[in-house]
Amino acid sequence: MFRIHQHRVSKRSLEQWLSEYAVSHQNLINKKIHWLCVPAIFVSILGMGMSLSVCFTLVLSALVLLFYMQLSTPLFLGMGLFILICLAVMTLLPWGFKVWASIFVIAWIGQFVGHKIEGKKPSFFEDLQFLLIGPAWVANSLLPNKKSNDN
């Protein structure tokens, strides 16, 4: 009567993910917008989560890190450090859910402006896993010895 569909994580390599993501991120203005807005979205999600449930946010962070660990150890370590820094800073900030939600909305508006300039739709319209690849794409541009020049 009911069918259970299993969603499997794609077996694409980090390089494949980044190359596919880069297709809709060629315009320099769009890239700069993404370098600012993608981390803002990521941090705001953590912030909203922390303001609602620390435990849920930690579990969600662990799941995100598992995804990154499957792709690349340096990416996993870099994103792990980034998440730890974000969570530590959030414990010092008195910001509530509304502030983090505002950052989230403003950053998404920026993302869509960037894609309007680019003339291409966001990658996550094709596959929701690209929502996790955006932060990886930004992080990859910061990592030494990066394997992809598509950033």
Automatic annotation (TrEMBL):
The keyword Magnesium does not apply. One of its GO terms (biological process) is sphingoid catabolic process. The chain crosses the membrane at residues 40-68, 75-93. The keyword NAD does not apply. Keywords: Membrane, Transmembrane, Transmembrane helix. PANTHER family: 2-HYDROXY-PALMITIC ACID DIOXYGENASE MPO1 (PTHR28026:SF9), DUF962 DOMAIN PROTEIN (AFU_ORTHOLOGUE AFUA_8G05310) (PTHR28026). This is PRS2 protein. It comes from Psychrobacter urativorans.
